[in-house]
Amino acid sequence: MFLSVFDIFKVGVGPSSSHTMGPMTAAARFLDGLRGGAEKTPWAGTLTRLEASLHGSLAFTGKGHATDRAVILGLIGYLPDTLDPDAAERLEAEVREVKRISPPGLGRLEFDPDTDLVFDYGPPLPGHANGLVLRAFDERGNLYLTQTYYSVGGGFVVTEAELEQGKAAASADLHDEKAAMGYPYPFGSAAEMLEMGRASGTSIAQMKRANEEAHSGGGLNKRIDHVYKVMEACIDRGLRMEGILPGGLSVKRRAKAIHEQLLAERGENQSQPHVANDWLSVYAMAVNEENAAGGRVVTSPTNGAAGVVPAVIRYYRDHCIGANHEGARTFLLTASAIGGLIKHNASISGAEMGCQGEVGSASSMAAAGLCAALGGTNEQIENAAEIALEHHLGMTCDPAAGLVQVPCIERNGLGAIKAVSAASLALRGDGTHFMPLDNCIETMRQTGHDMLTKYKETSLGGLAVNLPEC
């Protein structure tokens, strides 16, 4: 399966790619089915009412992740990349008041979020921990159309049938198929990626660029630059904003105050040697505070881990010797190649992998991107990615109150710090190392499979249940 740069880096809204962006996209896809993209039940009459049920992790942490709002907005007809985040609360309130929606092309439909949007706290659906079922009914209450969707991380959404097709494809040898599709470098593993690089004398970024251009034609730089600009704008806004984050935990935004301290210390030339860590942390925190507030972010590869890659790329731009705009493009192309390998061979979903699949993947991507931007060889880049991922193995996803705030905001800062350390260590070597990236990815997959469900984005264990009593 070809994963584009723009599959890994999607522009959307917070607070969660799997719990907000995914369900919103699923609801919008369901509307397309109602408009004629899917067959309705033969005996159904006129469409009059909609219903949705959330299962597994979408139910357990859905309220904290604004999944209910996402479904409502998706059923109105909005998508994550076009929604105005500032209008989301008002639009949701309108639906809750009138208990109806009017999706484009479908007329007025009954939908009461209090009764027609169900949080099912029973066992998850069989396909994935993030399940969503959408149903439409006619005027007699007969089922008109139903569809099951799975939000599989990073904003990716698949139907039940598509999930089964994907599993079948994953068990087959896809190398010849991908080559036949015209991709010049159809690598499905890090080992294949390195071998193709050696045979062709090209970098990982060059191979990824060639695949992208074969997939979508021209205009690649313009689209990459747009992703980069959205990341930069998110950091800048996060560094300006202050106040209390929504959700009830009374978590205070800290990025603005920390940034002002860092600027003052720079002017007085009084910074400690480890101040680089503080810059990395404040960039990442700025993004994840924006994400927690429902602002516009870029999945990198998820919303919960959206701060790591932007923080490291800002660190490259503002703090690294020889940084330039082409280096930023190289960074994002390389990072997306690593993210694609992790998603293809394991998962980037916190509900499947825990936070090792979110912040761990993001740190691995950022380490590879920075190593590439600083002139690392393919072997050094693969080494950097492996170091960063290796030292996130076993990390749980246990957000307090189901909100992407504690420990998620600070965790992105630490993921960025690990990414820079991993890139630096790899650049000090020649690329040879003991544990291949492919083996580390497989270890993450096995660890996620073995991890107890309460530690995978259900907020039923870990830090989420060990909270202050006052």
Task: Please describe the structure with a list of short key phrases separated by commas or semicolons.
five-stranded mixed beta sheet; alpha+beta; 60s Ribosomal Protein L30, Chain: A; two-stranded antiparallel ribbon; single chain; 2 domains; 470 residues
Tell me about this structure:
The strands form three sheets. A five-stranded mixed beta sheet has the order 5-2-6-7-8. It is α+β, with helices and mostly antiparallel strands and 470 residues long. The chain folds into two domains: 17-162, D-3-phosphoglycerate dehydrogenase, domain 3 (60s Ribosomal Protein L30, Chain: A, 2-Layer Sandwich); 188-465, no CATH class. Residues 173-180 have low confidence and may be disordered. α10 crosses α15 (325-345). The chain is globular, with a radius of gyration of 22 Å. It has 20 helices and nine strands.
Strand content: 5-15%
Question: Quick one: how many beta strands?
Answer: 9
End-to-end separation in angstroms reads 49 Å
Major sheet details: 5 strands, mixed
- Radius of gyration, in Å, reads 22 Å
Residue stretches low in confidence (pLDDT < 50, at least 5 long) are 173-180
